[in-house]
């Protein structure tokens, strides 16, 4: 038997433990580096990661094990691409233009996933010839090339004669939003989406209908903007606060049972298959940011002298907006500077969740929020006039 598809929590736990045990026994380096080494093939046989995986999950297809490890266990850089990264992408393309492009090499170099590299290339590809002479000029430094790239990008944005304006828009217009939603709905209704969950929408197939946009752009817009917009319209009471409450309520139980150490350990799509995991994370982070902000401001009001980093309690611009503390929630085993002025030390995930649970009044809204979730589960893609 060679099972494929979504991993169960039990399978994820088994595989992760087997890999971590192997790394702790045989490697003395960064976990990411060790996993990459295990993924690489040596000779004609399967990679070490497959051998480890098949021992604990004998019924799983090797490709399924490989893809799970590559996509879920390796921690990649995320967020906006830097100018230096885009320059390296262009250099890699021009250096290998008449041969096989080394996207795998670039993914390792930038510590980004192959999917990120592919999506960024689709964005850059229409304009690649505009940068050719600049990037290939041997007399220019990388700093000069980056400066020139910015100038070219500015000219391209202003000139409709060079490219289709829709390619460079930062938003998706209303007509396209409507078409995108209907396209996904048709695919979902016809059985073209496995298990009928938003996480399994085949975006490469959807992208064929919208060639002006990358799969990443379509996926993010649908998950973070379009679907929540539909749910707000159709299901009264649905909003980011409601999503944050149900997620925090569930995480509180997991923390209490000591099955997680950070949000990276939480499989939101297993508990809430009707809501995109990325949107859940956005809602939770937004809600906790507000809670932490209010907490810090309230504590700081009790002092009539400025705080600085030399004391027991740190007060920086990052801390005041809650970002430095909240970022720690998304890294395994990270802890935060204490917010307790009486007992300096560490505030862990359990305390942060407890604070959020109380301030967001999760218990009070629990019954109403559950009813909304049930409605969404019955009709994942409701008919809606956008």
UniProtKB/TrEMBL annotation:
It comes from the Eukaryota. InterPro entries: Homeodomain-like_sf, SANT/Myb. Residues 73-125 form the Myb-like domain. PROSITE patterns: MYB_LIKE (PS50090). CDD domains: SANT. This is Myb-like domain-containing protein. It comes from Theileria equi strain WA. The lineage of its organism: Eukaryota, Sar, Alveolata, Apicomplexa, Aconoidasida.
């Amino acid at each position: 038997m060679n099972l494929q598809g979504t991993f169960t929590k039990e399978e994820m736990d088994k595989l992760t433990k087997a890999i971590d045990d192997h790394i702790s026994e045989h490697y003395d380096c960064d976990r990411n580096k060790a996993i990459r080494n295990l993924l690489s093939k040596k000779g004609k046989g399967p990679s070490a990661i497959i051998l480890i995986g098949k021992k604990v999950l004998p019924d799983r297809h090797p490709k399924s094990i490989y893809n799970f490890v590559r996509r879920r266990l390796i921690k990649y850089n995320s967020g906006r691409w830097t100018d230096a990264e885009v320059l390296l992408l262009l250099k890699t393309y021009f250096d290998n233009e008449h041969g096989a492009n080394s996207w795998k090499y670039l993914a390792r170099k930038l510590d980004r996933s192959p999917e990120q590299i592919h999506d960024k290339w689709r964005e850059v590809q229409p304009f690649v010839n505009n940068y050719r002479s600049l990037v290939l000029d041997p007399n220019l430094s990388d700093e000069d090339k980056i400066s020139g790239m910015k100038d070219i990008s500015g000219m391209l944005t202003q000139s409709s004669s060079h490219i289709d304006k829709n390619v460079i828009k930062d938003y998706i217009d209303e007509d396209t939003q409507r078409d995108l939603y209907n396209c996904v709905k048709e695919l979902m209704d016809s059985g073209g989406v496995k298990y009928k969950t938003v996480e399994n929408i085949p975006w490469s197939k959807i992208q064929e209908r919208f060639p002006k946009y990358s799969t990443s752009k379509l996926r993010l817009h649908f998950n973070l903007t379009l679907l929540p917009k539909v749910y707000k319209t159709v299901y009264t009471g649905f909003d980011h606060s409601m999503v944050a409450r149900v997620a925090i309520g569930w995480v509180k139980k997991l923390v209490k049972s000591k099955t997680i150490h950070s949000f990276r350990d939480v499989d939101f799509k297993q508990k809430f298959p009707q809501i995109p995991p990325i949107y859940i994370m956005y809602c939770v982070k937004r809600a906790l940011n507000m809670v932490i902000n209010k907490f810090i401001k309230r504590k700081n009001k009790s002092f009539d002298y400025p705080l600085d980093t030399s004391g027991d309690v740190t007060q920086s611009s990052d801390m005041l907006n809650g970002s430095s503390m909240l970022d720690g929630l998304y890294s395994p085993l990270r802890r935060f500077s204490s917010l307790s002025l009486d007992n300096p030390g560490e505030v862990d995930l359990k305390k942060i969740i407890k604070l959020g649970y109380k301030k967001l009044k999760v218990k009070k809204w629990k019954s109403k929020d559950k009813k909304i979730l049930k409605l969404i589960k019955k009709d994942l893609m409701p008919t809606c006039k956008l």
